[in-house]
Amino acid sequence: MPVSERHSKLVYDALVAVGVEVVSALPETWLVHLIRLAENDPAMILVRLAKEEEGIGISAGAHLAGRRSAMLMQNHGLLQSVNGIVSLAQLYKIPLLMVISDRGHLGEPDPWQTAGGRATRPILDALGIVTDELSDPATVQLQVARAMTLAQASLSPVALLLTRDLMWEALA
Amino acid sequence: MKRVDCLEAIYDELAGCAVVTIMGAVAVELYSLGHRPNFFYLEHAMGLASSMGLGIALSQPDRKVVVLDGDGSVLMNLGGLTTLARYAPGNLTHIVFDNQSLLSVGGFPTATATGSDLAGIARAAGIAKAATVTSLEEFRGAAVAAIDAPELACVVAKVEAVGPTSFHMDLHLLENRFEFQRALRPDPDSEGDPTS
């Protein structure tokens, strides 16, 4: 599978390094390794969701109960979660670290991902969510740390987009 | 059976729990019985009260968590029942007040009015302890047993479609949020810690 195991591990380790203890997730191709890492980490509380919006509730509960969390989802999961983001995370000032696979953007070969890809950034922007793109493995740890710091300080959602450059390894 | 009477019947039991309610009549009626720092009223985001309860229950396995839900909200997050069943935290109790209507917004009927059975759906989702109750005595017995037992349980209470005359609560939602977070702090010396 050409999804980068090495870079997935970088992202996972960065989440652990910033104190993430609860991860909610719904699988998709780009997230397979990340979810496996959470699954194999006995210290991580992994919550597998039926639909991504539940993850906003899980993260809100975890935060109020004193634990840091992250959501692993596809950008279509973001689209699915918009009401939870607005009516729970933003309304109640919940820090929410959303790690989102950036499907449907430049280089996307799957036609069914492309409509969502076009909507992702405008929707994050319309929601006023600070967004950063993870594309360079050298800066992943720093970017994750800064995103968590901002989420905690602003008590708001912050989005990290997992880009094709980071997640997809070119076949040799 | 009236929802407010059900809430009154378990009000004392809620003292030591983290309580998450949905918006509307459930929130107002619990508040009217006497607000406590360990009560959180989710004033929007319909469907996510049970997910919040799960997040709290998994984060603090030693604290009892009670979600006070409604038919309209549960119907918006039926998939969440499968997530509850999957992790089945023993410290979580899911109480659903089923008045078969969206009472706060005009009383339009929900699907439970035409036969959808939420306890049946919960059982089929994998929550073995899920039952429907129709009388106050039955409700109190089932709810208290569910809160006491170290097992995930869902109690669906069939209640009348009547609510409070006013939906006003003299508690800003952010005030409620920060107070609730403080009440959940594990430090035994902290004010409002329901386990102290």
Structure, described:
The complex is a heterodimer of chains A (172) and B (196). With 172 residues, chain A is an alpha/beta fold. Chain A has helices at residues 5-17, 32-39, 53-64, 75-80, 82-90, 114-126, 140-154, 164-167, and strands at residues 20-25, 45-48, 68-74, 96-101, 130-134, 157-162. In chain A, 45% of the residues are buried. The mean pLDDT of chain A is 97. Chain B is of the alpha/beta class and 196 residues long. Chain B is built from 8 helices and 8 strands. In chain B, helix 1 packs across helix 2, helix 1 (3-10) crosses helix 7 (136-148) and helix 3 runs parallel beside helix 5 (78-87). Chain B is globular. The model of chain B has no long low-confidence stretch (mean pLDDT 94). The A-B interface holds A 21-22, 45, 47-51, 53-67, 69, 83-84, 87-88, 91-93 and B 18, 20, 40, 42-45, 47-60, 63, 77, 79-80, 82-83, 86-87, 173-174, 177, 180-181, 184-186.
> Helix content range of the residues of chain B, please?
25-40%
Continuous helix count of chain B: 8
What's the gyration radius of chain B in Å?
15 Å
Name the structural class of chain A.
alpha/beta
Ends of chain A: how far apart?
A: 12 Å
Low confidence ranges of chain B: none
Quickly give the structural class of chain B.
alpha/beta
Q: Looking at the structure, what is the overall shape of chain B?
A: globular
Cα Rg of chain A: 15 Å
What oligomerization state is this entry in?
Answer: heterodimer
| Range of strand content of chain B | 15-25%
**Sheet bearing the most strands of chain B, described?**
6 strands, parallel
Which percent bin holds the helix content of chain A? 40-55%
Total strand segments of chain A: 6
Largest interface: A-B, 31 and 37 residues
